[in-house]
Description:
This protein is an alpha+beta fold. The protein has helices at residues 76-96, 119-134, 141-155, 163-170, 202-215, 217-239, 248-267, 273-284, 309-315, and strands spanning 2-13, 25-40, 44-49, 57-62, 102-109, 173-177, 180-184, 191-195, 289-292, 300-304, 322-326, 334-336. InterPro entries: Galactokinase (IPR000705), GalKase_N (IPR019539), GHMP_kinase_C_dom (IPR013750), GHMP_kinase_C_sf (IPR036554), GHMP_kinase_N_dom (IPR006204), GHMP_knse_ATP-bd_CS (IPR006203), Mev_gal_kin (IPR006205), Mevalonate_kinase_arc (IPR022937).
Amino acid sequence: MTVCSAPGKVYLFGEHAVVYGEPAVPAAIERRARVTVDPRDDDHVRVTAEDLSLDGFTVEYTGGTGDRPDVDVPTPLVDAAIGYVDAAVRQARAAAEEPDAGFDITVESEIPLGAGLGSSAAVVVAGIDAATRALGEPLDRRELADRAYRAEFEVQDGEASRADTFCSTMGGAVRVEGDDCEPIDAPNLPFVIGFDGGAGDTGELVAGVRELREEYRFAADTVRSIGDIVRAGEELLADAVPEADPSRELLVELGELMDFNHGLLAALGVSARSLDTMVWAARDAGAHGAKLTGAGGGGCIVALDPHEETSTALSFTQGCEEAFRAELATEGVRVEE
Ligand code: MEV
C-alpha cells in the first residue's frame, strides 16, 4: 500500500491569463488530497472516494484501453473526479511501462472539488506519485509535474496550464509562464479563504474566456493586463524577505494588485454574484485585497488579512458556506507513512 498526499493552492495572481502564455503565481496551501494505491493482480481499477465534496462512492472498471471508463456515476462532479483519477492511472501506467497495471485507489481530500483550490491537480499529482511508487518506478518531481499536467490537459480537452499541477507538486509559491515553471521565494502570506459551497466548470469557463478573447479586442487586452499585474506582483515578492512575516506595506501593495486582478477576471465573465459578495465582504472587513481564485464561476475567494476580521466577517456573509485561514504549504507532494 502506498500513500501520497499533495496540497491544494490559491492563485495570488494570473489564473485564466496563464492559459494564453501570461505568467501566473499560485501558492500551495495546507489543505491536502491523500491518495492510497494498492496494485492488483488484474487490470481493473477500483476507485473509492471518501470526501471530494461527494457523498462517497466506489466504482470499479476494466482499465488498459485508454478510453474514459464507462461506469454509472451519480453526478457530474463524481464523473469529473473519476476522469481525473483515470487520467492519473494512464500516466502512471505509461511512466512505469506497465499498460495493464490494475489498482485499488482510495482518495480522501480536504479540498472542495471544482472550487478553485486545485483539488483535481492535487488528486492527480498524489495519484501518479503513489501509483508509480507502488509499481516500483518513482518519478522525479519535474517528471511527476509534467505527467500530472498531461493528465489535466487531457481531461480538460487541451485547456490547461501547468500552474496547478506544478504548484501542487513543488509546494510553496511558484511562477509559471507557458512551459517555464519555477519555485519562487515568498513570505507566509496570511491567506483567508471564503467558499460559497459551489463549483465552477473549468473547461466551460476557460472556453468562455477563449470565445470572448476571439470576439472582443478588450478581452485580449484584459488578458495582457492581468499579465502586467502578475509581473508587478512578482517584483513585490522578489523584494520581500522570504522567511520573515510580510510587512504591512507588502500586504497593502499585493492586496491592491489582487483587487485589480479580480476586477479584470470579472470583466472576462468568470466571477459570480457569490464570489463578488465575498470579495466585497472581505474588503469591507479590512482585508488588504481579495479576489476569486481558480477558474471562477463559483467556489472560493482568497483575501489577505493577518487578523481574524475577514474570516469572521466572511463566516457571517450570506452565500459563504465556509471561511478559513490557509497556511502556505511549503512542502509539495509527499509520501505519507
Ligand atoms: C484553473 O485552476 C486555472 C485556470 O487558469 C486554468 C488553468 O490554468 O489550467 C483557469
